[in-house]
Amino acid sequence: MKLHNTYTGAIEEFKPIEDNKVKMYVCGPTVYDNAHLGHARCYITWDVLYRYLKFKGYDVTYCRNVTDVDDKILKKAEKENKTPEEVSKYWYNRFSDSMNALNNLKPDIEPFATKTLGEMIAMNKDLISKGFAYEVNGDVYFRVKKFGKYGSLSGQPIDQLESGARIEVGEQKEDPLDFALWKKDEKFGYNSPWGIGRPGWHIECSAMSRKYLGKTIDIHAGGADLIFPHHENEIAQSECANGCKFVNYWLHNGFVTINKEKMSKSLGNFLTIDDLLKNYDSNTIRFFILTNHYRMPVEFSDEALLSAQAGVKRMLNAKGKVNENINITEFEEYKAFVNAMDDDLNTSKALAVLFDLTNKANKNVDYAYTLLYKLATTLGFTFEKATLSEEELQETITKINLELGENYSSMEDIIEKRKAARLEKDWNTADKIRIALDNAGIVLKDSKEGTTWELK
Question: Most buried residue, 268, 271, 281, 342, by most Cβ within 10 Å?
Answer without folding.
Answer: 281
